[in-house]
Amino acid sequence: MLISSDAAVTGYPGWGLYGASKAAADQLARVLAEEEPAIRVYAVDPGDMMSTAMHAAADPDADRPADLLDPATAAARLDPLLRGELPSGRYAASELSTVVSS
To answer: What is the pLDDT of residues 42-80, one digit of tens each?
Structure first.
């Protein structure tokens, strides 16, 4: 499992190196999934999370905690991937919320 970001697919000013590294990780996951179909390979975008220094640096004026995911919730949503229940691919935590019961 590789942790991705929306910066892998959307350009943000000043985030070129970070976005490029996440895009490379996504590509690595795609290629590995093709080369090793017997194993599950995931790239996961946890989404914007609250109470992280990285999010505060990226969006210092953010005043929408209801729109931001608690890191513990995002981690819990990875469970179906950790169990290998889903096919290889790129997932967002918001997509996994439909898989995980609250």
So the answer is: 999 988 776 677 767 777 776 566 667 777 888 888 888
Tally the residues of the chain.
102
Q: 43 exposed, middle or buried (CB, 10 Å; 0-12, 13-18, 19+)? A: buried
Structure letter (DSSP) for residue 66: G
The pLDDT tens digits of the residues spanning 19-43 come to: 999 999 999 999 999 999 999 999 9
Contact 64, 23 (CB under 8 A): no
Domains of the chain by range and CATH? 2-96 (3.40.50.720)
Instruction: Tell how far CA 54 is from the center of its chain.
Output: 14
Helix/strand/coil (H/E/C) assignment for every residue in 19-57: HHHHHHHHHHHHHHHHHCCCCCCEEEECCCECCCHHHHH
